[in-house]
Amino acid sequence: MVAPRLEIDLDKIRDNARHLVDWLAPKGISVTGVTKATLGAAGVADAMLRGGVQSLGDARIENLEALRTASIDTQMWLIRSPMLSQTNVVVANADQSVNTEPSVIERLSRAAIAQGKEHAVVLMVELGDLREGVPVHELSDAVRETLRRPNIKLVGLGANLACQSGVSPDQRNMMELSGLVDSVEREFGIVLDVVTGGNSANLDWALSTDDPGRVNNLRLGESILLGCDPLHRRAIPGLHVDAFTFVAEVIEAKVKPSQPWGEIANAAFDGLKPRTGSGNVRQALLAAGHQDVDPDGLVPSTGIRILGGSSDHLVLDTGCSDILVGAELKFGLNYSALVRAMTSPFVQKVYSTVHA
Ligand SMILES: *Cc1c(COP(=O)(O)O)cnc(C)c1O
What is the pTM of this model? Predict the structure, then answer.
């Protein structure tokens, strides 16, 4: 088979989506499946939908466009604020977008009028993680500006925590979001249907709280794809953590000294731990590198250690195993390794079929 490749088990992705949807439904929380780590792969989107997600979200309009072209039929949300230069294509391909800038909403409105459409807007609120979000004291003005734009429907408020500064979603900040929803509804005499509280980092809070307040949606990517809670980098019990497998081929296998020799300066990539140990190691070279995957995010099988990587090579200590040239080695992936592998044109994507 072709290597390097990413083997993708769509049944496991469907199962993960199904479990999360089922766990959150009793709390009144719907799930938007976030496809951005998979370059908007139609198979992955379809598996999420079979698992019961209510809509799909992606940070890149190109990915939503690809899903439309692949005839994926569901509500699609752009979950990154649109570029001014892309407002036309956003209105054409996304049913809803998250927003923080009045000038962008104004252009979305013009695009929506030109296309004879209505575009739904969620205003993101800054709750402390310091990435996207309207500061709380500017929220009223932002709502007023949005409401006066033709062909724009303000459907709700949202927040995103943890991604930038690691601020944990908790009862306090989620209640703050709920309170803002109530006060906007009161001030403007409107009803906000969508209160999208966050991403996979919200699961700890969402699954344990007795009172989700007004929060009725989460946008979940990593937890569906990798079964992982990004806040604590832990596997979520009951979910598959091995829906994705990275496979690469051995191109050299030799016994070599564990320590390099000669004057040591900089290597091609930083961040390498210096080699430890003495004597010899069984070293294997894989035909895959930083251009294919994030070596730091690969999880080898027991007994195998990743010593380092450059653009096109990974260097392994294979321990006791006698690995031959031509052998294929398999790895688990974290989010960073997954994103790199999905976006690399050198990595073949091999999908298992979904069994309904
Ligand atoms: C990436 C992203 C998500 C999904 O995050 P996961 O940690 O993968 O669940 C949700 N919302 C926004 C705004 C994002 O950028």
Answer: 0.96
